[in-house]
């Protein structure tokens, strides 16, 4: 445990991280691989909270672009995150890792309601806690929910695991000359409009001095190495 720089962290997993090479839904192999990575941290004594997205199933913005009422579509997106949370919980339990799902929208038959003090208690007892249904409010994203939960549970950093290996000055997929930052300030992220996370989430982290580490989920030991202070991905700080 001593080799880790952080004792309690919040990991943001996008819905896309669960679908692997597919174009929709949940890939059980990918989910298991992710669960194994997190279980390793848990076994090493790191307290891990997870906010999972829902973009592999439904995004509110996509729904409203097709004419749906935005809030209605956002509730569908939040429900999608609950499905992902249950899939992840199942993967953890198959690995014998204790895991709770707490939802910002109450659905007591399938998971616990989100109660901040209870979440902290679960983490202290050694359970992995998955925060589902985002913030519970439409017009937000799971990035913002991740920033919010990270602050609420007293996480020491927010890890954003994505399909790219950090923050670039422009989109690295369409711009081969894009430059990756090892370290960048929240201010620069906001002013330059860099696509690390949405501006509400970045501003919340800035206001609360919550460090963000953006890294590629596909590297097997990336999360572990980042939490040990090794140069993985991009660190966003004050
Ligand atoms: N969502 C919401 N409020 C929240 C979090 C999420 O309304 O606090 C909805 C929103 O429609 C969003 C969807 O849930 O598009 C899925 O979340 P997100 O797009 O953040 O997932 P990700 O891109 O991380 O997979």
TrEMBL record:
UniProt family annotation: Belongs to the UMP kinase family.
Name of the molecule in the record: Uridylate kinase
Kindly state which reaction or reactions the protein catalyses: UMP + ATP = UDP + ADP
UniProt keyword terms in alphabetical order: ATP-binding, Cytoplasm, Kinase, Nucleotide-binding, Pyrimidine biosynthesis, Transferase
Record-annotated Aspartate/glutamate/uridylate kinase domain positions = 7-216
Classification lineage: Bacteria, Bacillati, Actinomycetota, Coriobacteriia, Coriobacteriales
Annotated positions binding UMP: 54, 74, 135-142
Q: Self-association or partners: how does it assemble?
A: Homohexamer.
Activity control, as annotated, is: Inhibited by UTP.
Query: What biological function has been recorded for the protein in this entry?
Result: Catalyzes the reversible phosphorylation of UMP to UDP.
Listed HAMAP family: PyrH_B (MF_01220_B)
To which species is this protein native? Collinsella ihumii
Q: Does the keyword Kinase apply?
A: yes
**Entry's EC annotation:** 2.7.4.22
What does the record give under GO molecular function?
Answer: UMP kinase activity
């Amino acid at each position: 445990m001593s080799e880790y720089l952080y004792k309690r962290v919040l990991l943001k997993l996008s819905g896309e991280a669960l679908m692997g090479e597919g174009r929709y839904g949940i890939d059980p192999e990918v989910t298991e691989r992710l669960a194994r990575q997190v279980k390793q941290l848990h076994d090493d004594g790191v307290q891990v909270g997870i906010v999972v997205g829902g973009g592999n199933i439904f995004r509110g913005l996509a729904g409203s672009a097709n004419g749906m009422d935005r809030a209605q579509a956002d509730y569908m997106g939040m429900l999608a995150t609950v499905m992902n949370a249950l899939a992840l919980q199942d993967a953890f339990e198959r690995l014998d890792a204790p895991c709770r799902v707490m939802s910002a929208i109450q659905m007591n038959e399938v998971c616990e309601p989100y109660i901040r003090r209870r979440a902290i208690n679960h983490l202290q007892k050694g359970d992995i806690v998955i925060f589902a249904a985002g913030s519970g409010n439409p017009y937000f994203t799971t990035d913002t929910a991740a920033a919010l939960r990270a602050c609420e549970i007293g996480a020491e950093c927010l890890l954003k695991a994505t399909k790219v290996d950090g923050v670039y000055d422009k989109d690295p997929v369409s711009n081969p000359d894009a430059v990756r930052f090892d370290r960048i300030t929240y201010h620069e992220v906001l002013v330059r409009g860099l696509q690390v996370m949405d501006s509400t989430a970045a501003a919340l982290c800035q206001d609360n001095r919550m460090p963000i580490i953006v890294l590629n989920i596909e590297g097997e030991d990336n999360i572990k190495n980042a939490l040990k202070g090794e140069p993985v991905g991009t660190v966003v700080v004050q």
